[in-house]
Structure formats: C-alpha cells, structure tokens
Amino acid sequence: MDKEPAKFEVGINPFVSMKSKQSRMKKVFFVFVVALLVISEPSALLANCKDNQLEVKGDWGMARFRIEIADTPASHKKGLMGRESLGLSQGMFFVFDKPGPANFWMKDTLIPLDMIFIDETGQITTINHQAEPLTTTTFFGGNAISFVLEINGGLVQKLGISEGDLVRHPRINPDLAAWACKS
Asked: How far apart are CA 41 and CA 106, in angstroms?
C-alpha cells in the first residue's frame, strides 16, 4: 500500500505557528539592533553623557540617574530639603569647586537618602546608607571629596553599588576621570 504524499498549499507551512513566526521575527530584530550597537562608533554610544544624567558602574552592572545639579553654596545648603518624594531613577549631584572634606546632614530633608561620596576621578569612596530624615547629625564622607550623589534610601543596596565603583558625568574632569565622557 503506497501512501499518497501529503499535499500542502504553496507558501504555507502547517508546522510553523503564527506565534513562532512572531517570536522568530523578534529574535531577528533583536540581533539586528545588537549588531548595530556593536558596529556603531564608540563615541556615538557615549554621546548620552549629558549634564542632567549621571552613570554609575561596577561589577554589578550599570545604572543611569536623571539628576539635578547643586553647584553653588546656596544649592549645596538647600539640597533636597523639603522634598516629599524623589523619583526612582532621580538624584541630586553636588559639585564642589575643589576636593575637600565633606560633611552632610538631613536637616529639613523629609525622605531617607543614600549619600554617595565621590573623589575627583569619579571613584566612589564612601557611602552613607539610608540617612535618617530630619536629623542634624552630620555624616563625614571623607577629606578629598569632589562630588556627592544623593539618591533614594536603600537604592545603593538594591543595585549593589559599592565603594570603588565609578561614576561618569561631564562635570568630572576628563583628564582625571577613571571613566570619562567622550567629548
């Protein structure tokens, strides 16, 4: 008994479902996007270095924060005082004229913050986890601090940020930076 071969309409494969076709297209698109990123000029990938963004990287990966800059004595003094909330990926970046001792407190600050103290190369030197709101107790961050990043309390631990990790921002002198923005 010879069986007649199965007959299929031209261009239709009954063994491939619509979902698998969509899944395959998504994979092809993903590979295409990754290939574009790999062959892109590296400086184009670094073009995201903007004054209102800051990046942190370590063995755990990388995070980007939208930041406000405090670079005057008045803005240093005010900081995040009076704020009732701070977006998850937001923070305040304190920029000092020259490296020096850094003492921070939480007077009139309503939300717990992680304070990240950074040297002139962009390396994290000290972290104050979950600073208590509304206290006048000062936290000493070090003697040669050029920058401080304040983010939501507990986020440092959740992300895995630690001392020795690197920060990238246009305000960090590229001649000194351990991880510089490209100009």
From this structure: 43
Amino acid letter, 74: A
Enclosing domain of residue 27: 17-47
> What's the CA gap between 130 and 152, in Å, rounded?
8
Contact, 116 vs 156, CB < 8 A? Answer: yes
Distance CA 2, CA 170 (A): 77
Residues 25, 108, single domain; the answer is: no
Q: Tens of pLDDT along the chain (183 residues)?
A: 555 554 444 444 445 455 555 555 555 443 343 333 333 334 334 446 999 999 999 999 999 999 999 999 999 999 999 999 999 999 999 999 999 999 999 999 999 999 999 999 999 999 999 999 999 999 999 999 999 999 999 999 999 999 999 999 999 999 999 999 986
Question: In this structure, are residues 108 and 134 in contact, taking their beta carbons and an 8 Å threshold?
Answer: yes
User: Do 140 and 68 fall within a single domain?
Assistant: yes
Domain count, the chain: 2
Task: Take residue 64 and report the two structure tokens written for it.
Answer: 């980007």
